[in-house]
Design a protein that fits this description.
- The complex is a heterodimer of chains A (257) and B (332).
- With 257 residues, chain A is α/β, with parallel strands linked by helices.
- Chain A has one domain: 3-Layer(aba) Sandwich (Glutaconate Coenzyme A-transferase), CATH 3.40.1080.
- Helices cover 23% and strands 21% of the residues of chain A.
- In chain A, the strands form three sheets. Chain A has a ten-stranded mixed β-sheet, sandwiched between helices. A three-stranded mixed β-sheet of chain A has the order 7-6-11, with no helix packed on it. Chain A has a two-stranded antiparallel sheet with strand order 8-9.
- Chain A is globular and about 40 Å long.
- The relative contact order of chain A is 0.18.
- By secondary structure, chain B is of the alpha/beta class.
- Chain B has one domain: Glutaconate Coenzyme A-transferase, CATH 3.40.1080.
- In chain B, 35% of the residues lie in helices and 17% in strands.
- In chain B, strands 1, 2, 3, 4, 8, 9, 10, 11 and 12 form a nine-stranded mixed β-sheet that branches. A three-stranded antiparallel β-sheet of chain B has the order 5-7-6, covered by helices on one side.
- In chain B, helix 10 crosses helix 11.
- Chain B is globular, with a radius of gyration of 20 Å.
- The chains are: A alpha/beta (257), B alpha/beta (332).
- The interface between A and B is large, with 56 and 64 residues.
């Protein structure tokens, strides 16, 4: 029997909803933070056969509860893994086509699913220099992407200041025309909704709203016009089982504070 | 893509893609015999000349060649440029100490749980130093091309992004076989690579445990390699398990025994990161980045007599805790 959970934080909701987006048997290239945690959560719930790849060079690890790695490059990322390879080799698996889902967090996203983790303001004279792409550019260029991030107006902007990790670039066929002939943005999971992309225009649309969230709320927290169908569905709330498994994994709230 | 040869700040980029025949000539001129190369950190600094390009092994807080970076800072090297897959605290210290003002990498901050580096922000936002951003895979393929002795590698990412638009040494081409658009990234042959390993013999046969990051390609691409190692083992030991040797002796110029040589970062199977020390550094540089990092350099880099004293300053309790966690990888 599933019991609906009552108390949870926005990041716990984000984590549970992201975990649900993964299917059993998939090969998932996970970034640090919520993606790492959500992929591990999926392994412990509905998708025990998810194979995780970390950009440090790990194939098929099972992260130990309470010992979450600070980045995807430390030995904690390698626990119970099947194989360790170089960074270049693990990234080349994306290019070769072995990966079902690239799974990342995001600092800033736009209507076409482009992500910015490099500069706030202009690249020549930024107001903030952010840490940069890491593997983000390669992952989003080479496979189908799921992004997990909180939905806020300052993070969901019409056009990002800098395309670090490409989504549908400038919409339409611009992604393909630029040379990125495979992959693309698939889902953006937020604390308010599950978002997808219109096949033709490449613009963001609402696939489902989380329980208690109105279409107006989703729009108010977005800096551009979202495509929202009148008949948009609602997600199932997190269950006690999902939250218990999540809290077991991250008891110190490293990623779910 | 930018016009060739100029950068955002109008500076000329040092061309790190070396002419093939000069690369070979330099390699042929190296003493590639099986000979003892054991020396001190200070002596190994002699293999790094001012103005050169230095590549750092490891990634983020793992197998960072901290002892060698520490020694270069103490030796007050000048005008070095650096590259690494992902740069953590050592990047802050390179900028703040003044040994280099140009770092090529894909990501630069201590680690995501500590937020954006305030020191990196200070230097880049005030145009005091350059953080040249490439995609993670492109850096790997640049070292690989360097290791292979070819001038470039083709790849399928970065196109369509502003990461590529910012760079001046990329080319798009139409594949002569398929007609597809493809990106070419130039070989990177560092003047020197600094790599920390778990075990190495006096000749430079280096054995790595765990994640190898980009280190093998980097060692093969570089014109000089300095290995720091947790311990020096005999050549007989190496010959018992030659399948574990990942870097061959003839690529290596110097071997330095530096126990806890990655501290405060991790060395796979030996110690995990010294988290509390990294928390301390992040706190110290949060409000007053420059004051904080200068104080840190004074206390931990310039003041100690030697590497052992540096480790003493970090603290035995922290080292033992990190070692306990590090070895636990073999408990499963």
């Amino acid at each position: 029997m599933t019991i609906e959970a009552k108390d949870f934080t926005a990041s716990e909701l984000l984590c549970v909803m992201s975990a649900r987006a993964l299917e059993d048997g998939q090969v998932v290239f996970a970034g640090v933070g919520i993606p790492l945690l959500a992929a591990t959560l999926a392994q412990r719930l509905h998708a025990p056969g998810v194979t995780i790849l970390f950009e440090g060079g790990t194939i098929g690890p099972h992260v130990v509860p309470g010992q979450l790695p600070p980045t995807t490059n430390e030995q904690r990322c390698t626990r119970k893994a099947n194989m360790l390879v170089s960074i270049t080799e693990v990234l080349l698996l994306l290019q070769r086509g072995y990966v079902d889902v690239g799974f990342m967090g995001g600092a800033q996203i736009d209507q076409y699913g482009n992500l910015n983790s490099s500069f706030i303001g202009s690249a020549d004279d930024p107001s903030v220099r952010l840490p940069g792409t890491g593997g983000g550019n390669d992952i989003s260029s080479l496979t189908r992407m799921i992004v997990a991030m909180p939905q806020e107006k300052r993070r969901f902007v019409e056009n990002v200041d800098f395309i670090t990790s490409p989504g549908y670039v400038r919409g339409g066929t611009s992604r393909r025309d630029s040379g990125l002939i495979a992959g693309g943005m698939y889902r953006v999971v937020t604390d308010l909704a599950i978002l997808g992309f219109d096949e033709e225009t490449g613009r963001m649309r609402v696939e489902a709203l989380h329980p208690g969230v109105t279409p107006e709320q989703a729009q108010e927290n977005t800096g551009f016009e979202l495509i929202i169908d009148a008949s948009v569905s609602t997600t199932e709330p997190p269950t006690e089982e999902e939250l218990a498994a999540l809290r077991h994994l991250d008891p110190d709230k490293v990623y779910t504070a | 893509m930018r016009a060739r040869g100029t950068l955002a700040g109008g500076r000329m980029e040092k061309n790190v893609t070396q002419d093939y025949l000069s690369l070979r000539e330099q390699t042929q001129a190296r003493d590639r015999s099986l000979r003892d190369k054991v020396m001190t950190l200070e002596e190994a600094c002699g293999f790094v000349n001012d103005g050169e390009h230095v590549s750092l092994g490891g990634s983020t807080a793992s197998r960072t060649p901290f002892a060698m970076v520490w020694a270069l800072i103490r030796a007050r090297k000048k005008n070095l440029s650096f590259s690494r897959s992902i740069v953590s605290t050592e990047g802050d210290l390179i900028f703040a100490s003044g040994i280099g003002n140009h770092i090529l990498t894909s990501w630069f901050s201590q680690g995501i749980v500590w937020g954006v580096s305030r020191v990196m922000r200070h230097f880049t936002e005030n145009r005091l130093a350059r953080f040249e951003e490439w995609s993670h895979m492109s850096i790997g393929l640049r070292y690989r091309a360097g290791a292979m002795g070819v001038p470039f590698m083709p790849m399928r990412s970065m196109m369509g992004s502003d990461v590529a638009a910012q760079l001046d040494n990329l080319e798009e081409m139409t594949c002569p076989f398929t007609g597809e658009k493809i990106l070419l990234v130039p070989a990177l042959n560092p003047d020197v690579a600094l790599i920390h390993v778990q075990r190495c013999d006096p000749y430079g046969n280096a054995q790595l445990d765990g994640l190898t990051f980009m280190d093998i390609d980097m060692a093969m691409a570089a014109n000089r390699v300095i290995i720091t190692t947790e311990r020096i083992i005999s050549n007989d030991q190496i010959r018992r398990r030659p399948d574990r040797t990942r870097i061959p002796f003839f690529t290596v110029d110097a071997v330095v025994e530096a126990p806890y040589g990655c501290a405060p970062h991790e060395c796979f199977g030996v110690y995990e990161p010294l988290f509390s020390h990294m928390d301390y550094y992040a706190e110290l540089t949060r409000k007053e980045p420059m004051e904080g990092v200068k104080a840190y350099l004074d206390e931990y880099f310039y003041a100690p007599e030697n590497w052992t004293e540096y480790l003493n300053l970090i603290g035995l309790d922290k080292l033992l805790d990190a070692a306990r966690r590090g070895r636990s990888i073999y408990d499963d």
